[in-house]
Amino acid sequence: VAKVFVDTNPDAAAKVAKITVEGQEITGNSTDVPAEKKSVKVEVKASGYRSAEQKVDIVDGEEMTLQIEW
Predict the structure, then answer these.
(1) Rounded to whole angstroms, how far apart are CA atoms 45 and 53?
(2) pLDDT tens-digit map of 13-57
C-alpha cells in the first residue's frame, strides 16, 4: 500500500478543493492506494481556480506528495 498526499496552495483554495483519485472523491487530502496500481490520476478542483490534473506513479510502501499551486 502507498499513500498519496495532495498539498494545495493557497490556503483559500485548499479549504474548498475537491480531490479525486481515479475518479473517486476523497475525504481530506490523502488516500491509500493499493500496491497493484502502478499509477493513479489525481484531479483537484476548487471554485474560482483552474482545475489541475496529474498522474502519480505509485511505489509500494512509499508516501508521495503532489504539490498543487494556483
Answers:
(1) 9
(2) 999 999 999 999 999 999 999 989 999 999 999 999 999 999 999
Q: What is the pLDDT of residue 35?
A: 84
HEC per residue, the chain: CEEEEEEEECHHHHHHCEEEECCEECCCCEEEECCCCCEEEEEEECCCCCCEEEEEECCCCCEEEEEEEC
**pTM metric for this prediction:** 0.90
What whole-number distance in Å separates Cα of residue 56 and Cα of residue 42? 7
Q: Are 63 and 7 in contact (CB under 8 A)?
A: no
